[in-house]
Amino acid sequence: MSYIPHTPEDIQQMLSTIGVKSIDELFKDIPAALNPKSFNLPASKSEYQVTQILQKLSAKNATGLVNFVGAGFYDHFIPAAVDALTSRSEFYTAYTPYQPECSQGWLQAIYEYQSLICELTGLDVSNASLYDGGTALFESAMMALRHTGRNKIILDSGVNLIYRTMLYTYTSNLAIEFVEIPVAHGQSCREELFKYLDDKTAAVIFQNPNFFGAVDDYSDIVERVHKCGALAIVSVYPVSLGMLKIPGEMGFDIATGEGQSLGIPLLFGGPYLGFMAARSQLVRQMPGRIVGATVDSDGKRGFVLTLQTREQHIRRQKATSNICSNEALCALRAAVFMSLLGREGFKELAEHNYQKAEFAKETLSRINGVQVKRSSLTFNEFTVGLSRHAGEVVHRMIEKGFACGFPLGRFYKGMDNYLLVAVTEKRTKEEICRLADSLEAVL
80-338 maps to which CATH number? Predict the structure, then answer.
């Protein structure tokens, strides 16, 4: 990033141009109590001085920790080719196709991404991506409301709390009835869910694997959901689809998820990638943009924006979304990542994640004061009960060089002594054994 300071003379010239005398006058209509505190800046510094300050701040970050934290965002290996290909100037400087007929390369890249997401989920159509997994899940709920004309949504509490909070926040001004169903032994409670399933239900929303790492086959629930005329929606962890039953095979109407694990680094929380796929009959309810393939007047293959659902493009009352752009660069990374792995490589990646997590389960279960929860199958993330407060254990483990997991008490009442542990292909047998030794010492 360039260092481009504004001199006092520059600032005064800009203020004069817009007809005010000072920064304070520019913002005089804002009550003093609401004035941004960030304007109380220290005196200007040189580029070197600013660099030193930023380096000192970055040094406060915990570095070198062995990462066993998941909870929706995962530490996966990213092949060097992903950075090399996606940083090419042809992509990096023209990443949103405002004039699609002039953006054939980008449109093809998005088309290939959509095709790969359809392959991954087993569904018919994918959009060009959304902001993140939570946004995608919210948009899927809105699709169900529009499609069914109903206003009730049943939500499994095994869905990530971040996503549930986003869903409630985005819909707070809408007349939607939400029913949240508690999990039973780590999985969706069929008996409780079926009590609330009726002809007012627009959709039932699940996550697989759910927040506790538990894997489920929802085929039986999806069948009941369809019988009452509702849609079945699932948020999925994409790497797990190399091994688990995919949404299309279970009969889901819409599948969404966070694409961070498809070649996108953790990056302190973003930018990330929300993916969405659905059955073909729902295509006109999908938000964002969809790229399609066609032929021109000379019979040559080309790519177009088949559907654009933004209110800027069509009459506002008919818009299905006001999302401004797909996460094109992140979608490109996901497409390159999946292409590099291929079908068999993706299966192998999933197998590594599963087997290493199973080894970690067995290793941790031998520690006095650790109880590995085994009521459900898991993929690469699982829940353990501890003899001490999980938050305290996490703090002590950082001192020993481990980010050992996510304390579930932060998201679920009564689970203060429970820890969510994630094991990806990057974790070695030695690291898992050292984690166990350190955890035993802390307990």
Answer: 3.40.640.10
